[in-house]
Each structure stands twice: as structure tokens, then as C-alpha cells.
Design brief:
364 residues; single chain
């Protein structure tokens, strides 16, 4: 009996070694230059040129190969891109080779690439809220040219990214629909570029609270000599720099026309979420990131970096199907109307009334 067990153990070890050798051989055979352009974008969402630019940025940030047969940095990046795009370890890496890596290796590659994409200088390079008047004026002008709404520097909303049950502080991530998630706040411009993102809060946190703690709020409130607006839904408190809909506005009244235009412009953030999650499907609410909240938040930021790279490069991404859109809507938690202090609310109402009056004058 003991001899038989030893033979079985030896056979299992040899089988594991053979699988490892086969994976190594497949990796060595992988030549990305042989992958057709459309297939490359389909697998990794980036064009070949954009992939090379990404490699230049983050290869120096990846751990060096520790062994002769270690994973090449470029293959690590391809592996991570494939996971972000599919949201699964089971997708192909390379030319439909069914992933020439063990799942543990894929996970390690994903963590290393995600950490590199979260390097402070990488985040600053690709996700940047306008910091001076000229930059803000450029964004304002684009919103105005597209929609006729002045002084808008961004649209804001939160979107939910599902995660597995955390081992610590579970209550922070458990939402009213009874699953665990990261409540991710995003600000975008009219081109669907993400200018600010916060993926550090759980599903139990209200959108308005995340905004109150956001450094961008303090930045906008400090612009005393400049008119700037973010557009948000009624989950945000009306403020001088946060334009929300008018409650119970009569259709075709000045307030009703403002609501129509405000919602039309605010759809920009909804389209941004659709493009982001259509391209990087690991973020779909119907799927779960099987990582702790901190790592899941870093994956979200990494996908936002890659989203902006693709938007700037003009690379089209796969759109969500109607079924996927419906699944997203079902899994997102409806907003709750934000509470508001009297003084700040009055200042917000004055600013919104002035905007409504300006829009009415422009109609004449």
C-alpha cells in the first residue's frame, strides 16, 4: 500500500511538472506580432501601438524576472489586460491558447500590473482634474458647444462594482440589495474622459458623503472668482458648484426645460460608465472581483487609467448588450435624496436660479 501511494505521488508530481513545461513552451511560442490587429484589440482592448506605450510606462515598475524561465513583463501586462477585459481567469491569453499559465500565476501577474498602474505618477498622468482656468475653460467650452449649458466642468455620479464578501469590516461594503461592493465616484468631461475617481468606499456609503469628503469639492469651493458647475443627480446636495435637478418641476416651464437639459448633459457620466464597463468587463456589477476591497479598488483605478488611454487614442470598445445594461440597472442601488444645510442650500438655489434665467434669456 505504501509503495502504491509513493508511486501515485510521484506520478502526480510528474504530471504537474509536465503541465508547467507545457505552459512554458506555449508562452515561449507566443508572438504578439502574429496576432491580427482586430483580434489583438478584441483580446486586450488596446491597439498594438497603445500597448507599446503602456509597456514603456509600466514595465520599469514591474518586478524583474527572478528566474531564467520567469514570466516576461510584456506577457504579464497582456495577461492583466485580458483579465480586465473579460473579468475571468478562463479567457484566452495570446492566440486562443487557453491561458498558458496557472491561475495562481495569472493572479500574481494581475496584482503586479495593477500595482504598477496605480503608481502615483501613472495616475497623475492619465487621470487629472483641470487645475487652472485655461484647462477648465477648455472643458467648459466643449460642454457648451455640445449642449448649450455654460460653465460645466464635469458630470458626477457613483457606480457599483461587486466584490466578494470581505473578511474585515463587511458592514462597510454590504448594500441595500444585499451584496458587497465598492461604491465608485467618477467625474467625467464631455469626451467621456475620467478626470477624477474615488474607489475607496464601500456600498454602505451614500454618494453625497463620498462627495463631501472629496478633495475636488474643496478645490471648486475655493474658486471664488470663477463660475464652475458639476452636474449631479438628486443624490447630491444642491450647492453653488453642484447643479442638481429641480424637484417637481412643471414640464415646459423654465425649471422643466432646465431639468431636461441638465439630465441630457448628465447622461455623459452614464455613457462613461457604459464605455468603461463595456471595455473592462471585470467591473460589471453582475460579476465579482475576487479580491479584498483595497485590491479591488486598485483594479478599478487601473481600468480607469486604461479607459482614458483608449478614449484619447480613439479606440472603440465593445458596447454592453441590452441584457447587460438591464443587469447593471438592476444591480445599481437607487440614490437617496441628499440632506442639506440651509445656508449652503440657499446659495445653491441662487446659483441654479441664475443659471435657469441665463438659459431662458438665451432662448429668446
Amino acid at each position: 500500500m505504501a509503495t502504491r501511494q509513493l508511486l501515485i505521488a510521484a506520478a502526480l508530481r510528474e504530471e504537474r511538472l509536465e503541465r508547467r513545461r507545457n505552459r512554458r513552451r506555449l508562452r515561449n511560442q507566443l508572438n504578439i506580432s502574429n496576432i491580427p490587429d482586430l483580434e489583438f484589440v478584441g483580446n486586450y482592448r488596446l491597439s498594438r501601438e497603445l500597448f507599446e506605450e503602456l509597456c514603456q510606462d509600466i514595465v520599469p515598475l514591474l518586478p524583474p524576472k527572478g528566474r531564467r524561465h520567469g514570466i516576461e513583463p510584456t506577457l504579464k501586462i497582456l495577461t492583466a489586460l485580458n483579465f480586465y477585459a473579460r473579468g475571468s481567469y478562463q479567457g484566452s491569453v495570446g492566440q486562443n491558447m487557453d491561458g498558458p499559465m496557472a491561475q495562481q500565476t495569472v493572479s500574481r501577474c494581475l496584482q503586479e500590473v495593477t500595482t504598477a498602474l496605480n503608481a502615483p505618477h501613472i495616475l497623475r498622468k492619465h487621470i487629472r482634474f483641470p487645475q487652472n482656468r485655461n484647462e477648465r475653460n477648455l472643458i467648459k467650452q466643449k460642454f457648451y458647444d455640445k449642449y448649450g449649458l455654460p460653465a460645466v466642468v464635469g458630470c458626477i455620479d457613483c457606480s457599483h462594482v461587486a466584490i466578494v464578501r470581505p473578511s474585515e469590516h463587511e458592514e462597510r461594503y454590504f448594500n441595500r440589495k444585499h451584496f458587497h461592493l465598492i461604491n465608485t465616484q467618477v467625474i467625467c468631461d464631455s469626451d467621456l474622459l475620467i478626470t477624477n475617481v474615488d474607489a475607496s468606499y464601500g456600498g454602505a456609503t451614500h454618494d453625497a458623503y463620498i462627495w463631501r469628503e472629496c478633495e475636488i469639492r474643496n478645490h471648486l469651493e475655493g474658486l471664488q472668482d470663477e463660475t464652475v458647475y458639476l452636474l449631479g443627480d438628486s443624490g447630491y446636495a444642491l450647492r453653488e458648484h453642484m447643479m442638481t435637478p429641480v424637484d417637481n418641476a412643471v414640464e415646459n416651464s423654465p425649471e422643466g426645460r432646465y431639468n431636461y437639459l441638465q439630465k441630457r448633459v448628465r447622461c455623459t457620466i452614464e455613457r462613461t460608465f457604459g464605455v468603461l464597463k463595456g471595455r473592462w468587463r471585470c467591473l460589471l456589477a453582475a460579476r465579482e472581483l475576487h479580491y479584498c476591497p483595497e485590491t479591488a479598488g486598485k483594479i478599478i483605478l487601473a481600468c480607469c487609467v486604461l479607459h482614458n488611454m483608449c478614449i484619447r487614442a480613439g479606440i472603440e470598445g465593445p458596447e454592453l448588450t441590452e441584457e447587460e445594461h438591464q443587469s447593471e440597472r438592476t444591480r445599481q442601488v437607487p440614490f437617496e435624496t441628499a440632506a442639506s444645510s440651509t445656508q449652503a442650500l440657499q446659495a445653491g438655489r441662487r446659483a441654479r436660479n441664475s443659471l435657469i434665467q441665463m438659459l431662458e434669456r438665451n432662448r429668446r
